[in-house]
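Regression report. Comparing outputs from two consecutive submissions.

Submission 1:
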Amino acid sequence: MRNLKNSLFYIIVTGGFIYLMYRIVEQGKLLEVGRKIVSPSSNDSQWVQFLSSLFHNLKHPLALLLFQIITIVLVARIFGWIFRKIGQPSVIGEIIAGIVLGPSLFGLYFPDMKEALFPVASLGNLQLLSQIGLILFMFVIGMELDLKVLKNKANEAVVISHASIVIPFALGIGLSYYIYHQFAPAGIEFLSFSLFMGIAMSITAFPVLARIVQERGIHKTRLGTIVITCAAADDITAWCILAVVIAIVKAGSFVSSLYVIGLALIYVLAMLFIVKPFLKRVGDLYAKKSNIKKSVVAIFLLTLIVSAYLSEIIGIHALFGAFMMGAIMPDISKFRNVFIEKVEDVSVILLLPLFFVFTGLRTEIGLINDIYLWKVTGCIIAVAVVGKFLGSALAARFVGQNWRDSLTIGALMNTRGLMELVVLNIGYELGVLSPKVFTMMVIMALVTTFMTGPALDIINFIFKTKDAIIPSEVKNRSDFNILISFGNNEKGKSLLRLANSLIKKETDTANITAMHLTMSDEMHAYNLEEYEKETFEPIAKESKKLDQKITTIFKATNDIETDIADIAHQGNYDLVLVGLGKSIFEGTLLGKVLGFTTRIINPDRLLDKFKGKEGLFENSPFDDRTRLIISKSKTPLGILIDKGIHNIDKVFVGIFSVGDVFLIDYAQKLIYNNDSHITLLDNNELTKNNFIVENALSAVQLNYQENIEVIHTDELNKPFMQQQNLIIFSLETWKKLVDEETSWLTDIPSVLIIKP
């Protein structure tokens, strides 16, 4: 009855008002009498009118800007992904994407399309958006700096960092002496040109460096701490020097710039002694609350905009104000995390690629069109490498580092990345750098960033060492080492319980290593230790409950699957245990999802058969990550499909083929260490026809009569399987059983799939 009333009300109201609107429009046409009405030509067809309207909409500034953003973000992500896959920072790929979309490639071969996509009139909007992105990004960079490390390592860090600025700065000024006459823009004083060349040579890309250190697993080493501290000190010093250089360039002379520098000092002091305590007070008030109010977020973001605005009108650039605001943010991880999460995704994914493309539109590789210009570019690269690489390395050696660590510090400090592009664009906008010099310097930024990874590999090869992250307990080699790699805490605890059941009585001769890998682009240097502590805290509690000593590995990486395989191989682990990742189950081809060759399965029948929260097949298809781990692993690998495993008292071990005999070794370990009751499958035909299987089954039955039960294939059924705590199969048997859609596999407990 209620639904009928609602329907009648809906029909009366909508119908009545639609009729009312129709009558008003009809009467309104009478008002057109005596007025000149402009309408499309009656000669044009409706289709032509539609196309004309569509074309007009496409050329609208907003539509064009949105299309530019879509194109830029897609191309930047593709190139970033490609360069990550070859072991390079994604920022290099994004910079190259910008150059590709600019006049150097896209504009060279498709000039009309380039002009249609990036008309000159639209570049102003693109530039403004990119500058907003940079302001937000510099805010994040300021927050990423952990100023506490400067206090702990200030002595060595300041020496190395300042040497890595002064030496390349001096060499940059020296280089400008030789190229000023030919390459400096008309009307630019030598002082301005030389200062920008010097600061461009001195920049280190702190974000890129921090992620390389994380990915190499050296962030917890003494070397990692020193180089992160050096980069932080370098960043702060270089941006302060840049602010002074900008002031000098804008003022026209050093004396005139003193007024600007004076205002800048007042601004900095106000930020440190007025704004910072105010923000800390606000932060302390909301530090323990579960949610941060939008009004509080508004206060901080408004302060960011005011800071950037003041630094811009003073004459030291808005980016310095954004960086300064980030650096004085309350030292409360919760606060910093909230703002990084809110700001970083928008700036890095959406707006920063606009900056890369805008830089690419300014970079014309075609301007370097003869051998001489390429020689000059080579000289610029050589000066940059000698100044930054050797300057940092020699300073590190002077303060007591060995040659290997000194050269590593030099290679890392030579990374320039995005920060160099920021400086170059400022110089270009101020008219200090000509298009040719700008292009040469962009090439230098790419080369010096690209060479960091290979340089580190060469240094490690020469000194015959690797960035060690394998714990000493494993290096000293126990009889049986297990590596568990977990993504979330619950899976980690289940894997630890399983590993413990395999070695709990062999504590003197066995070892468990718990490893957590995280994507480097999701991590920040300032809260790395805190994130690691939070990650391993539940695992540590579980290990105490089990009375099981563990060692830990934490590493930020850009290739989790490869690192799991490499660390397992380098550590000579006897078994690697991983949890099955989130399934990708489309319900179309089970074989396609599993990554194996199977026949086509009716999706409706399959979904009906295996649906339900407790259904094993809901989690059984291997996702892309698990398949990659399987393919890359050279170490025995166990994949746990966890259904909430706690006790491992009853275990079924399926011996379906000769290749499954190795599973008996794991069964014996569970019996000896965990006193588990093991049910072995005795495949009648296999036992009769193969003496290896027959002898293995007979031996284990003889040794462990009380803990071993043998059943035959015809005794396998769903009720029996549901009584077990854990089911163990070999990888090949699991693939075969899934391919055959074995009915008793549904609704069974946790499964361990082992690849020998």
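Submission 2:
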Amino acid sequence: MSEVNGPQRLGGWTRFVTARPRLTLLAALVITALAVFAGSGVADRMGSGGWQAPDAESTYATNALEREFPASQPNLLLLIDSGSASVDDPAVAAEAARLAERLSGEADVVGVRSYWQDKAPALRAEDGKEALIAARIEGDDKATGEVLDRIAPAYRGTHGPVRVSIGGPVAVQHEMQTLIEEDLLRAELIALPVTLVLLVMVFGSAIAALLPLGVGIVAILGTNAVLRGITEFTDVSVFAQNLTTALGLGLAVDYALFIVRRFREELATGAPTRTAVGTTLRTAGRTVLFSALTVAVSLAAMLVFPQYFLRSFAYAGIAVVLLAAAAALILLPAALMLLGHRVNSLDLRKLLRRGRAKSPDAAAGAGWGRFTALVMRRAPVFAIVTSVGLVLLGLPFLGVEFGTADDRQLPASSESHVVQQHLRDGFPGSPGGGLDIFAEGGATPAQYADYRSRIAALPGVLRVDGPVTEGKAAYFSVLGKGEPVGQETQRLVKDLRAEPAPFDTSVTGTAAVLVDSKAAIGDRLPWAVGIIAVVTLLLVFLLTGSVLIPVQAVVLNALSLTAMFGAVVWVFQDGHLSGLLSFTSTGDIETTLPVLMFCVAFGLSMDYGVFLLSRIKEEYDRTGDHEHAVGYGLRHTGGLITAAAVILAVVMVAIGTSRVTNTKMLGLGIALAVLMDAMVVRSLLVPTVMKLMGRATWWAPAPLRRFHQRFGLSEGESVRPEAGAGAGAGAAGVPEPSAEPERISSGA
């Protein structure tokens, strides 16, 4: 954007959003009401899966087995507990047979099979007190959940001599979805009042504190409506609703804090309300737009992955970021136009200021000024100690083990978790950990027998069952010697796929899904990281005009995430604090979670980074004094960024109170990353690195300087070098300080 055209465009935008503020807010109220209607029931249309790559071999085999051999892929299990009697007791067997026959008659239930039908050892507990009835409910996540709700009450509980508990994948997914909805409501009830209290503490004014909450509510409700529309065309994970709430509140607070704070600063200088709004939009408003773009790009990178679990977070994240920015740039200025100086009304901090000459904001700014001066005086020490500390905190991630999500995501007391734990502890062959081979194309009995003998001879194979044939299709069940998703079983998946056969084969099972998921993420991860890095470098260059600052931003943002990744492994994989945090450690981390957490946390780090850099750039353009600009930027944004980070961390911790482990990990991990970024990286590393780099921080080659002068964006009232100043500025191409900064009209 040229220096000439920028102010006129921003002035036009100011006139647009402030011309009829009452009409703007009324329209927003109507649209929000429609969004409430459009987004109602969105959770019921979401799925609780999405970890499988849709184009993977394991997905193809699973779908084929579900179609050709429904009984081979049961998703509903009835655990029959015979109490003190044996499961082979005649009375127990008769009641179990009656239950199995009744289940066979249920609509949408197929492939019913029980221990009492063929005495299969895998369906009987080793102590002889429990056995299984297995079946498959047909349909998608929503349909299977509805069937389960319909039939479960008739089977759960005591039936004569037996007691029935319900488990299996469909029960796990349904219980997980129910818990997420309940936990999300509880998180909102926790986060909203706590956020309001913190905002009052930051702003003082109760009126100003309500504005960010209004922006957040609009963003959340609007995003739910968007997600409801997306569910008409593709699968969306129910986990994405957690990100909607967290980012909706968090970013709304960030953006509104930045805009309202700048508006109040302009009012304090004596500017009329309309002029203050215009200046705020031209400065803080432009930064908010820039920040929203950087966060949206980080989240959009998840679209390159095939798993709909990750893609769902991209849908929700992009929508909530853009809606939060739109509300902050349209509705908030309209509200500020109507409020004017009343934005400072109901100042609840007056009692705290009794007898003080300075306001809390001024005192905080002075404190940040002294802190920044100390950090920059000891820049080498702070840079080395902080960097080494962050690296050490991230070391546990070197021992990460990847796995798949299962029933242990649920509380230990949940019914489906209890059933699956009984299977792990008491049934032979680790049910659920086997592998299935789907064979198609037809073969003779001799060919099937030869293939079976060859795969039975593979290292790591404990037992091979089958083939079960139907027309030209067949399947084999393979039980490995290792853990269900351990390294030995993963190697067995690769050995089975490499074994030649006279027919087409495809392998599925928990370990096969993990192998395919890791491969899909590994193939696309460089693309996602590349997209984030390249676009971030470009956007930060457009903001600053420097070649080195974008590189610094990317490196420091990545460094800020080390503590989060180290903590995730130390706590959730290794099980430290599992009792305190009430979760079951599985010894691994679900494969998609680190990718999701990286994209979200990196985007939020850039959010804070843009706020700080924009204010530093504004002051540097005004004065040309590098060290002064760094100190000025931290003095004016340090408290703001810290307050925003604390509020966002509160929201994420509220999400982290979830009873579902993945949601707990997401909430607590990102809360830690946000706090480390705001309180360590922005406060210590950024000023020390900029101090050590000196005026070279702003270096750019001449062609890029000219490109930035024409298309770049900057916050505030920039001072451009006079003709020929580039030469006088030296090799770095840095403008010399100007005694009389040029004043640019806001165009309001």
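Expected: both submissions complete independently.
Actual: both completed, but the second showed a warning that disappeared on reload.
Relevant detail on submission 2: The radius of gyration is 30 Å.
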